[in-house]
Design brief:
Layout lengths: L2 H14 L3 H4 L3 H14 L10 E5 L5 H8 L3 E6 L2 H14 L5 E5 L13 E6 L10 H11 E12 L5 H6 L3 H10 L1 E3 L10 E3 L3 H10 L2 E9 L14 H14 L11 E8 L3
Parallel strand pairs: 1-2, 1-4, 2-3, 4-5
Antiparallel strand pairs: 5-9, 6-7, 8-9
Helix pairs in contact: 4-5
């Protein structure tokens, strides 16, 4: 990652590490995270001794859930404070003995051994925050076992159209649609790092180009419940809306509505 980009990514995530979890503590995120876990569980390794990597782990939310299921997890993030928050979380769960922590850019995972992990998760779109998503995917491919699975999310380019439309600048929208690059929206310009966005088809092409085959592709979430949080106040209501969401999320005509695209992919044999 180039120094300016890495500096912006680190600066933002270093600053928000202490309150990161509180940002995602509301009915929408409870609903969203329950869906994510349901989508992830079928890909947990059958071998309880298999190793898992949580890439761009943030405060370790997903790796912690995987660790509670009994797996050894390596947590990787470009932000030291995020890694320290993760270390604290895992220590409170009593799982530190089976956890490793690495401060690293996803474009350089050279400190991890090749063919080591049965599963890698990169949730929260960290691959799109790197200088080269294609390079990051090749690094991830190297650390996965021959039967390894990657589950990753990417910002959906189609979901960004309304933002640029609201700005009233057709040139800016045309440029965004052409190259898919936008910026993290935060007040401090020094924290506004570039983000690579992808259409659903673009996600497929990206991972296939890195030597993976897609086994699951879905939109998350097709129902824009961020703007209808009041409908998710109770667990019962969240379950009702989740059933509808699960009926839509893999519909190729509906994925384009989602803010993010989630892919599960395996290494191509041979």
């Amino acid at each position: 990652m180039s120094k300016p980009r890495r500096s912006a990514v680190k600066k933002y995530h270093d600053r928000v590490a202490g309150r990161y979890d509180q940002t995602y503590d509301d009915p929408f995120w409870k609903w969203h995270d329950a869906l994510t876990w349901d989508y992830l569980k079928p890909f947990l390794p059958r071998d309880a001794n298999a190793k898992v990597a949580d890439l761009g782990c943030g405060t370790g939310k997903w790796g912690a859930k995987i660790a509670k299921s009994g797996y050894a997890v390596t947590f990787v993030d470009v932000s030291y404070p995020m890694i320290e928050r993760t270390r604290q979380r895992i220590g409170q769960l009593g799982g530190a003995a089976r956890a490793d922590f690495l401060h690293a850019d996803l474009c350089d995972l050279s400190e991890l051994s090749a063919n080591e992990f049965a599963l890698a998760v990169a949730l929260g779109d960290p691959i799109g925050y790197t200088e080269s998503p294609a390079r990051a995917l090749k690094q991830i491919r190297r650390i996965l076992r021959h039967d390894g699975v990657l589950i990753a999310t990417f910002d959906n380019r189609l979901a960004g159209i309304d933002y640029y439309l609201s700005g009233g600048d057709p040139q800016a929208l045309s440029h965004f649609l052409r190259d898919g690059m936008t910026r993290w929206l935060t007040k401090d310009a020094s924290e506004q790092f570039p983000i690579a966005t992808f259409t659903p088809g673009g996600v497929r092409g990206l991972v296939e180009g890195a030597g993976f085959e897609v086994v699951d592709l879905l939109g998350k979430t097709v129902l824009d419940m961020r703007h209808h949080r009041r409908l998710l106040a109770s667990a019962e209501e969240r379950r009702k809306w989740a059933r509808i969401e699960k009926g839509l999320c893999r519909d190729v005509d509906a994925i384009g509505r989602a803010s993010h695209v989630q892919v599960a992919c395996r290494l191509v044999e041979g």
